[in-house]
Amino acid sequence: MSREPVNLTGLQQAFPYPRSAPGATTDLGRLIRDEIARSGPLSFADFMAQCLYHPELGYYARPEVPVVSKKGDFITSVTVGPVFGKLLAHRLHKFWLANGSPESFTVLEPGAHDGTLCLDILAAIKALNPKFDEAIHYLVYEPLPVRRQLLQAKLGGKASVIATPGEAKAEVGALVANEILDALPVPLYLRSGGQWHEALVTSHESSLDWDTRPATPSLPENLAEGYVAEGPPDLSSFLKPLAGVFKNALFIWIDYGLDEETLYHPARTAGTLRCYSKHQSNAHPLDNPGEQDLTADVNFSAVEECACSLGFQTHPAMNQSRYLTYCGKDWLLSGPTPQEIGQFQTLIHPSQFGSRFYALEMTKGDVDPATVFDQGDQCH
Q1: Which of 27, 44, 88, 264 is 20 to 30 A from 366, alpha carbon to alpha carbon?
Q2: Rounded to whole angstroms, how far apart are CA atoms 67 and 60?
Q3: What's the pLDDT tens digit per position in 217-247?
Q4: Are 90 and 330 in contact (CB under 8 A)?
Q5: How many angstroms separate the Cα of 161 from the Cα of each of 102, 109, 165, 369?
Q6: What is the pLDDT of residue 352?
Q7: How confident is the model over 165-171, as a mean pLDDT?
Q8: How far, in whole angstroms, is CA 56 from its chain's centroid?
Q9: pTM value?
Q10: How far is CA 73 from CA 10, 273, 285, 291, in A?
């Protein structure tokens, strides 16, 4: 805890939403309050991790709740329809061909949610090339037991569901991850009194509230009083086990995010952390633990830096509109149906997913990336 009082106005202005009534909380909220009473305030990253991934009470540990749907809390490119998976299948196929059409090709998808993207990709691969279909070994990595059960039931043996990346090893393959990086728990920082403070979660009068402690994050020092920003998540702990699955691979990350310079622009005083519930984002992040999504824009600069430290070569990120158009060049010439064209237009439209989302590719090992991207090494 901070030794001297810290002005919390910046946090209050960053999240000016009405709070729940004192004492009104969730089962997870009560567990968190008990933990704080025993051990003291939690870092926001630890709080966010529990809110999203507590094995019984976390936001993603509720398979009976359709959180990713038009009737849920938010939509993704996957919910637009199967065209998204079809376009990614074309990208994987091109990489497979460029690297000698190996007899075994592993696809790993972390955080596959309900398995829809997996099934869409597999269906498209089956129609695209029977030999590629025979080569595919599709793995879904899901650490939450309750969600693994759901995936095993839905996938019906079409893919293997694993609890840890350590369960898999592959000579060559690819990772496909849509909206995964934005859900990694992030630390939260406040600029006050000319220095940075890490935001903590404490308990006060039966409600969760803010506290702070002095911190020295790798953030700019010239930002204004009251500036709030997220730090990068623990990328190394997340990426290193995934990298260890493959000797040679293509990794595809699709998410909303910014480069570091833009993320910490002086005008972005409230950061990017937000909550989603029923397609609304006007909720306080400390309310209703486990019952609302918590997310933050991806720091693509930090992802690239971490990837380079793990031996990857990164390739220039591009917006989803450009990326999917590139992936779908052959498909667009093959005569897609009007319904498929409608899905494609939604995926690339600037006001929908096209400009807000970015695709970052990285390659590991001795592979032909099979891209039109600038092949210059992006690691500096």
Answers
A1: 88
A2: 8
A3: 999 999 999 999 999 999 999 999 999 999 9
A4: yes
A5: 23, 10, 10, 27
A6: 87
A7: 97
A8: 21
A9: 0.93
A10: 27, 16, 15, 10
How far does Cα 371 stand from its chain's mean position?
A: 23
Residue 280 CB partners (closer than 8 Å, separation 6+): none
Distance of alpha carbon 139 from alpha carbon 134, whole angstroms = 15
Task: Give which of 4, 15, 2 is closest to 226, Cα–Cα.
Answer: 15
Q: How far is CA 253 from the centre of its chain?
A: 8
Q: Which residues of 179-194 are buried (b: 16+ CB within 10 A; e: fewer)?
A: bbbbbbbbbbbbbbee
Confidence tier at 314 by pLDDT (50, 70, 90): very high
Say which residue the tokens 């209050």 belong to.
12
Q: Are 174 and 250 in contact (CB under 8 A)?
A: yes
Tokens 């993320």 map to which residue?
263
For residue 46, what are the CA distances in angstroms to 32, 133, 161, 288, 359? 10, 41, 26, 16, 28
Residue listed under structure tokens 């019906």: 156
CB 110 within 8 A of CB 180: yes
- Return phi, psi of residue 301, to 5°: -65, -40
CA 268, CA 264: separation in Å to the nearest integer?
A: 7
pLDDT tens-place string over residues 64-105? 766 554 555 568 899 999 999 999 999 999 999 999 999 999
Parallel, antiparallel, or unpaired: how do β-strands 160-162 and 170-178 relate?
unpaired
Q: CATH class for domain 77-184+235-267+297-363?
A: alpha beta
Q: Are 379 and 316 in contact (CB under 8 A)?
A: no
Comparing CA positions, the residue from 248, 253, 246 lying closest to residue 139 is 246
What pairs with residue 293 in β-bridges? 276
